[in-house]
Amino acid sequence: MIRVVLIDDHEMVRAGVSAFLSTQPDIEVVGEASDGATGAELAIAEKPDVVLMDLVMEPVDGVESTKRIKASWKEAKILVVTSFLDDEKVYPVIEAGAMSYVL
Amino acid sequence: MKKDSYPRTVVWHQLFSSLLTALFVTIAFLIGDSTSLRDLFTREEGLPFGVSILVIAVLIGSIFGVGSYFYLRRDFREVAIALWKLENQKEITFRPLSPYRDTLERIARISKQRTEMIEMAKRVGDRPVSVEEARSEAVVEERRRVARELHDSVSQQLYAISMMTTAAKQTITSKPDVAAKQIEQVEVMAQTAQAEMRSLLLQLRPVELEGMTLKTGIERLLEELSRKQSTELVWRLEEVELSRHTENELFRIVQEAISNTLRHAKAKRLEIEMRTVQQTVILKINDDGIGFNVDDTQVASYGLQSIRERTAEVGGTLRLVSVPGVGTQIEVRVKQQVEGLE
User: At a CB cut-off of 8 Å and minimum separation 6, what does B263 contact?
Assistant: First the structure.
């Protein structure tokens, strides 16, 4: 089972992604958060196999959240989900320790 | 750096006060011991008593005077150096324990203010001068904003819809009840996207009243919106006499306010009122929606900012009251132009 934590401030996006992931037999969504701060706490507590991270969030964004997770849990695998509009924000988050990103 | 030395008079002050003390001591002796003045200054051996007191007073006075001169000069120089730095636009630093800390902090503040003013002046200087440039910059900014808003609303909902539909496609045979719920969610998502799209389109409409009076313009807008969405719209409008420019701006304010309400307020009812009282046009827009905290800067959205700016532009006053859970009231007041000035 691949355990996933979802961090995204759009409730509908969380619902959609979560529903989509639940249809995959080997994926389990173990937690969801609507901002970077609670998301980081959740990820550190749950230690999932993958963290799906949104970039633009208030008040703590995806870059900061990634830093927080990496600071206390170095092995975290963080995957950034973003659209082309956030292009210029991708480098900082990769620098912060995200593994890869999905457009 | 041109040095401004600490006033040497401090040495003389110290000396003078020591002498004064010596004089008082002498007088005290005179009164206390009933020794005559003459006795004090005449003695067989060595220096007379009175003379010794004076000499000691001068000595102590000089030592203290010179000492405090050097001691106080250090603090004074710090102020002088700070002023020199202020003059030469250098960064101002000082010991936190300096007795002149208040003054030094004030100098540092002046320096900071000046830096800010210089930066502001530079920004103003960088601004496009021609109307053409200003316009094209405004267009670019507007496009950026619309892109951002679309990205933040409709685009996210479409993404969610696509995800949810893929999920429903997978579950429809194995778990039809789950699929049914997911399709219901897709419906809600699509409705939300539609509502947001509509209000964004409302913002993108041409601003001009195009020959209509403000009253007719607002009425047309509200009639059209009444057909298209579920919030109940109620209006009481009077014809008003304002300049063309002011009417256009007020029309835009109404559009922004309605767009804000439809997108964020979740209101059941929206009331718009416009009338003239004592040469002042009063425009009120009330809703019974979720409201927001007026002081919260995050909520100070583009729409509100635009309403503020437009009100200021026509010389009007804006009153914004919002109570979370109760609703929001926007009131714009504009004085009519005095006859003949227009």
Answer: B153, B195, B196, B199
Nearest CA in chain A to B148: A85
Residue that is written with structure tokens 């509009």 in the block:
A85
- Report which secondary-structure segment, H or E, holds B322: strand B317-323
Per the CB < 8 Å rule, is A83 touching B151? yes
Whole-prediction pTM value?
A: 0.53
Residues B275 and B332: beta-carbon distance below 8 Å: no
Q: pLDDT of B117-156, one tens digit each?
A: 888 888 776 665 666 777 777 778 778 878 888 888 888 8
Predicted confidence band of residue B1 (pLDDT cuts 50, 70, 90): very low
**d(Cα A55, Cα B257) in Å, to the nearest integer?**
29
Share of chain A above pLDDT 70, in %: 94
> Which residues in chain A have Cβ-Cβ distances shorter than 8 Å to B171?
23
Positive/negative CA dihedral, B276, B318, B252, B326: negative
Kindly list the distances between the CA atom of residue B193 and the CA atoms of B29, B32, B147, B197, in Å, as whole numbers in the listed order: 101, 102, 15, 6
Closest in A10, A23, A83 to B167, CB measured: A23
What are the distances in angstroms from CA A76 to CA A44, A48, A81, A99, A100?
9, 8, 16, 9, 12
Chain A window 34-63: which residues touch B at a Cβ cutoff of 8 Å? 56, 58-59
Q: Identify whether the C-beta of residue B240 lies closer than 8 Å to the C-beta of residue B216.
A: no
Nearest partner of A47 among A86, A76, A14, A81, judged by Cα: A76
Q: Report how far residue B4's alpha carbon sits from residue B76's, in angstroms, rounded to the nearest whole number.
A: 9
| Out of A15, A16, A83, closest to residue B155 by CB | A83
Per-residue pLDDT tens listing for chain A (103 residues): 999 999 999 999 999 999 999 888 899 999 999 999 999 999 999 999 999 999 888 889 999 999 999 999 999 999 988 775 566 778 888 888 888 777 6
Domains of chain A by start residue, with CATH = 2-102 (3.40.50.2300)
Q: Which residues contact B91 (CB under 8 A, 6 or more apart)?
A: B85
Domains, chain B = 9-123 (no CATH), 129-204 (1.20.5), 209-342 (3.30.565.10)
Q: How far apart are the first and last CA of chain B?
A: 59
CA torsion angle B119 B125 B131 B136 (round to 10):
-60
Report angle CA B2, B6, B11 to the nearest 5 degrees.
Answer: 150
Q: Which residue has the tokens 């040497």?
A: B8
